[in-house]
Each structure stands twice: as C-alpha cells, then as structure tokens.
Amino acid sequence: TFVVTEACIQCKYTDCVTVCPMDCFLEGPNFLVINPDECIDCSICVPECPVGAIVADTDLAPAQMHFLELNRDLSRNRQWTRISHAKAPLPEHEKWAGVTDKLGLLQR
Ligand code: SF4
Ligand code: F3S
C-alpha cells in the first residue's frame, strides 16, 4: 500500500485524490490518509503531491514507519470521510510545507 506521511499535515493540497482510481483517500481536518485495504499500489498519486507526502509502505523512512498504522487507524475513523475531488489547500499551506515534525498538530 501507499501511505500519506507527515508532510501532508497542515497543507492538505488534495491534488492526490483526483487521480486515485480506487477513491481510497479519506479526509480529516488537516491531513488525509489512504485506506490500505483499498489501495492497489498503482503509485499514480505519488507525483501529484507537491510536498512528496505519499510513499510506498516498503520505502518508508524509519521515522515515518508509524504512519502506516496511522493511515489504517484513521481510515476506520467514522469522522473521516472519503474525498475524491480536489479542494483548496489549507490557508497556511506555504508556511507549513517545509516544516517537519508536525505530528503533534494532527487533528482527528
Ligand atoms: Fe490510489 Fe493508486 Fe495512490 Fe493507492 S497508489 S492511493 S490506489 S492512486
Ligand atoms: Fe496531502 Fe499531498 Fe495529498 S499534501 S492531500 S498527500 S497532495
């Protein structure tokens, strides 16, 4: 499966969702996740993300490993809804795009 990682937090550009043939993205307040049970590993979403947030589970950096479970957990969160059409990125996306260590800001 492919995994949405930390770079997405507080940016949420949503370019990724428009290309997914499985519509397997789910949206929360300031992050998206991929439902790992639905992703078919086509990889076409990867180059769409302006901040490189989408990574194959097999290529996750050690510090981002836990995002696999996080994507799975949040896919099952009933507050998170399917998203398949792009929308405007979050208002302060430019400010947050280069910031690492944003996990503490994740809103569920
Ligand atoms: Fe969707 Fe393909 Fe990306 Fe998986 S790899 S989330 S199926 S676009
Ligand atoms: Fe997030 Fe990148 Fe998609 S910032 S919403 S994974 S385009």
From TrEMBL:
GO MF, one annotated term: 3 iron, 4 sulfur cluster binding
Coiled coil: none
Keyword Metal-binding attached: yes
Residue ranges constituting the 4Fe-4S ferredoxin-type domain according to the UniProt record: 1-29, 30-59
Domain of life of the source: Bacteria
Required cofactor names: [4Fe-4S] cluster; [3Fe-4S] cluster
Keywords, comma-separated and alphabetical: 3Fe-4S, 4Fe-4S, Electron transport, Iron, Iron-sulfur, Metal-binding, Repeat, Transport
Pfam families xref list: DUF3470, Fer4
Function: Ferredoxins are iron-sulfur proteins that transfer electrons in a wide variety of metabolic reactions.
Name by which UniProt lists this protein: Ferredoxin
Species per Swiss-Prot/TrEMBL record: Eoetvoesiella caeni
